[in-house]
Amino acid sequence: MTHPEHPIDTPPRPASPVHGFGTLAVHAGSPHDPVTGAVIEAISLSTTFAQTAVGKPVGQYEYSRSSNPNRDNFEKAVAALEHARYALAFSSGSAATANILQSLAGGSHVVSVSDVYGGTHRYFTKVALAHGVQVTFSPSLELDIAELIRPTTKLIWIETPSNPTLSLVDIRAVASVAHQHGILVVVDNTFLSPYVQNPLDHGADIVVHSVTKYINGHSDVVMGVAAFNSPELFEKLSFLQNAIGAVPSAFDAWLAHRGLKTLHLRAREATTNATAVALALEASPHVLAVNYPGLASHRHRAIALKQHRDGMGGGMLSFRIRGGHEAAERFCQHTKIFTLAESLGGVESLVEVPSAMTHGGIPREQREAAGVFDDLVRVSCGIEDKDDLRTDVLQALEKAVVGGIVKNGVNGDSA
């Protein structure tokens, strides 16, 4: 059922930036202090701001939950990098998700890709459902979108690449259908960052990030952000940002803004490293399959070439190891440079087993339907030397697969 009288009109984008990404990353939202000339902004830790008379604050700030200089500057920087008019920062990526879903009326319907971050799946199935928002998951969103839309559908939720199987979605294809029905499209861009992909340029209405990951990039901040072009969305979501109060501290906003300034350098190096690791894994007899959009063999490589900067694959990949869940665990325990830990997008390289960690809360049949098998290992490549990372992966594979078989043989167990 289409609603031609209520289509989504894409709001006008801001003017194309004069400067390149790196220049914007360093300078957007970073004015020099007019009094001291400091080139790095001070941290404004004050929770409240003086007023010269009742209702007349000295400057533009009254109370830090509503707005804060550090948060404002960070939001301006993210908006510039995502080609957006507005950005709003939240206390976590999950808080950004919650604020967007909270903006929907009870009885609303959402369509989401099946392969989403475990925390997003948890929110959709446990929290959103409790306040009357129903979510339908699809493993093939582009093919199913027209059939999944209902009269109550208000939102399409996309992760591209998805977490953790690195599937891609053609944003423009989905948005073209959704907008004919008056439905908003949200893209979680955490896995790629604004440097590799700008979803608003491809028709998305809102782009969200777990700032904890690539934007901050140093594994010392938990934070989220949403960026968009619609004044109506800004009015609605900024009201919820303040009313719900899920806002980051001034110090976290300052740290995230500091990290953002080197995003382009880190994203390029992470892509270089992930490409080297993915090629090594693809050539290994100990690996069943590799999921990395930078590989020519990736089933959605054509989408990557269309949507990603220079066809980059990003710093994230996953692979299925021979030997099942036990081999996956052994691999993560045998790496010497990669750290066994949740999260991603930091300067250090990490590995984890999604079925038992980040996606452990999703029922097994749902996980496997989305391609998240017990033998799947997720890899976040940092900015270390690529040769060291490649060597580390190969030695861990050998110990996890070949070493595991030898050990089982010695113990009299079957391989």
From TrEMBL:
Pathway assigned to this chain's UniProt record: Amino-acid biosynthesis; L-cysteine biosynthesis; L-cysteine from L-homocysteine and L-serine: step 2/2
CC cofactor: pyridoxal 5'-phosphate
Xref: SUPFAM superfamilies: PLP-dependent transferases (SSF53383)
GO molecular-function term, one example from the UniProt record: cystathionine gamma-lyase activity
Lineage: superkingdom: Eukaryota
GO biological process: cysteine biosynthetic process via cystathionine; transsulfuration
Residues bearing PTM N6-(pyridoxal phosphate)lysine: K213
Record-annotated membrane-spanning stretches: none
Keywords, ordered alphabetically: Amino-acid biosynthesis, Cysteine biosynthesis, Lyase, Pyridoxal phosphate
Enzyme Commission identifier(s): 4.4.1.1
One GO CC term, this protein: cytoplasm
Disordered as annotated region, ranges: 1-21
Similarity-based family: Belongs to the trans-sulfuration enzymes family.
Protein name as it appears in the record: cystathionine gamma-lyase
Organism of origin: Lophium mytilinum
